[in-house]
């Protein structure tokens, strides 16, 4: 595309000079029709000024964050932990359920998924050992009380149906039928990631140098948090599948808050999905389609985008500003519990229900369109939300008709 943007922005995917200074090149992969707040653009410019930053890529889900913009990938000669944030390893995983959509009764599913609020009763020692996390137990709290839980904010566990198949080969490639139900899980490293983040708060200004012991210690714990988050999503899915009396199989797992070595540099991703994987999920709001994407294989585009993509719709309005926009009375709150697709929303935290209302987010189709026009992706599937689970009142053990224990290991497949 050759769209000319205002305020120093640039054509989609092309180099944009952030200022007259010799700052890091900025590649914008969003169009002039994208909803991008000025504060997010200002934060992009600030990123380009930071010592050691060599390149920035921004995506159409871009929005302001606490320590910097969300929806970006940054290449630097050092690590800035604040650019990743405290929810290290936060990401999205997509699973196929061994059940057809037509057999699901959503109201019953909504009740069964309340089991996700119960404490985990599964011994996950073998999984922790497989991920290399047990070796951290002597010096690091593994926050096992949070394992298998979704958390707050924009995290969710969502039942989905395939709406449209754009590339027919993908069904055979992934060994799924169009009528099968899918499970989309968005969660992170919970308290574990926060504990890692707190160890490096004094390093924000100058970052962690490539040859420092502090960096090696941080990366070791950081990588543990990324593994913790991925395992957490898998356990959430297994618990959900067990509650629904079925099994699950993971077909995509993608972190969007992490730092990785890139040669002798470091790629920071904040709300930016890894695009060096075969397939990448793109999340919509609970009242919008999500998508499964194939990233570009064009080497030049991969380098300019720092091997990254948009991770979802991106916020349009921050949480504080949602108060008064929706949920002003009982009727409006009830409407937030259903979707235009006829789907259900389980969120028994009134404030969270309002903060995460669909109109708090950008249009996922518009985000996808920008990515397509920037030649970064090929869409494979669109996914319709059936039931979005976010938060329920804690269940007592008595209300759980069947314990979620050893059967998880037996029934869920990887």
How would you characterize this protein structure?
By secondary structure, the protein is an alpha+beta fold. The protein has one domain (15-411): tRNA-splicing ligase RtcB, CATH 3.90.1860.10. Helices cover 26% and strands 26% of the residues. The chain contains twelve helices and 18 strands. The chain has helices at residues 38-49, 81-84, 106-112, 125-130, 169-174, 190-198, 213-243, 299-304, 330-335, 350-355, 364-373, 407-411; strands at 15-16, 26-28, 53-63, 70-76, 78-79, 91-100, 156-165, 180-187, 208-209, 248-255, 257-262, 265-270, 272-274, 280-282, 290-295, 308-310, 344-347, 377-391. The strands form four sheets. Strands 6, 7, 8, 10, 14, 15, 17 and 18 form an eight-stranded mixed beta sheet that branches. Strands 1-2-3-4-12-11 form a six-stranded mixed beta sheet, sandwiched between helices. Strand 3 and strand 4 (70-76) form a beta hairpin. Helix 6 (190-198) packs antiparallel against helix 7. The longest helix has 31 residues, at 213-243. It is globular, with a radius of gyration of 21 Å. The model is unreliable at 1-9, 17-21 and 395-414 (pLDDT under 50).
CATH architecture descriptor text: Alpha-Beta Complex
- How many DSSP-defined strands? 18
Based on CA atoms alone, the radius of gyration comes out at 21 Å
Along the chain, the helix and strand elements come as EEHEEEHEHHEHEHEHEEEEEEHEHEHHEH
Class based on secondary structure composition and strand pairing: alpha+beta
Binned, the helix content reads 25-40%
- What is the CATH top level name? Alpha Beta
The rounded distance between the terminal residues' Cα atoms is 41 Å
